[in-house]
Amino acid sequence: MFTGLIEMLAPVAEVIEEPPGRRLVIGSRYISDTAAIGDSVAVNGCCLTVVERIADRLHFQAGPETLSRTTLGRLAAGGEVNLERSLQLGDRLGGHLVTGHVDGIGHLASRQDDGDWSTFWFTAPFGLMPQMASKGSIAVDGVSLTLVEVTDDKFSVQLIPHTLAVTTLGRLTPGQPVNLETDLLAKYVARQLAWRQVGNDASDPRPAV
Questions:
Q1: Of 182, 142, 161, 175, nearest to 10 (Cα)?
Q2: Strand, coil or helix: what is 53?
Q3: Cα 60 to the chain's mean position, in Å?
Q4: Full domain range(s) for residue 127
Q5: Last residue of one domain, picked from the residues 34, 53, 85
Q6: Helix/strand/coil (H/E/C) assignment for every residue in 55-73
């Protein structure tokens, strides 16, 4: 479990083909001293396991499912990623509960910069939109953000200068893809509402929830 508060913007040192997957080698001087083999780290919002640590670089393996359903398949040496270590019991929850299980890929539709501040509009898969609401939470490339406006196929967020400077979001240009994870509580609410509708169908023998 994560919070969506990014600990460091880290360089992609190598991307090594390991068919059918890939090994991602990430420079992580800030967290490598405390990271151990088997630890969970969110890489651009995708929960990966540390499989090797050499000096200040962490090695992760991503399988074909992860590569095809997240933006990790597009990573290349020289790029950057957002890193966050998993929560420990007793840690402060400064963002919101983030599982590191990406729900879908969105795209930056537009960006309006106003000095050091920015408003971003993202498109998202249709099935994710019912799980979003104004003033709710969403993780974009692992960054915990507050939803401002939500339409049938887009949502907006407002980014402070700090977020733009210390995460990959500040480098985004229109058209680029991002990993999206909707709020965990919203998923449960949507699921309950769906089952309630099924239960209210007279042709279905199951009771309403």
A1: 142
A2: strand
A3: 17
A4: 104-193
A5: 85
A6: CCEEEEEECHHHHHHCHHH
Q: Which of 68, 42, 55, 49 is nearest to 13 (CA)?
A: 55
Same domain? 65 vs 111: no
| Type of residue found at 187 | K
pLDDT digits (tens, 9 = 90+) for 128-155: 999 999 999 999 999 999 999 999 999 9
Cα angle: 149, vertex 105, 65; to 5 degrees: 155
* Residue 44 DSSP SS3: coil
What's the token pair of residue 169?
A: 């979001």
- What per-residue confidence (pLDDT) applies to 101? 96
204 SS3 class: coil
**Contact at 8 Å (CB) between 168 and 81?**
yes
Write out the two tokens for 186.
């919203």
Do the beta carbons of residue 1 and residue 46 sit within 8 Å?
Answer: no
By the 8 A CB rule, do 155 and 182 touch?
A: no
Among residues 121, 186, 185, 174, the alpha carbon closest in space to that of 150 is found at 121
Residues 162 and 127 in one domain: yes
In whole angstroms, what is the distance from residue 189 CA to residue 44 CA? 26
Please write the tens of the pLDDT for every residue from 13-67. Answer: 999 999 999 999 999 988 888 899 999 999 999 999 999 999 999 999 999 999 9
Confidence class for position 203, pLDDT limits 50, 70, 90: low
Asked whether 174 and 188 are in contact (CB, 8 A), the reply is no
Model-level pTM? 0.90
Dist CA 67 CA 75 (whole Å): 9
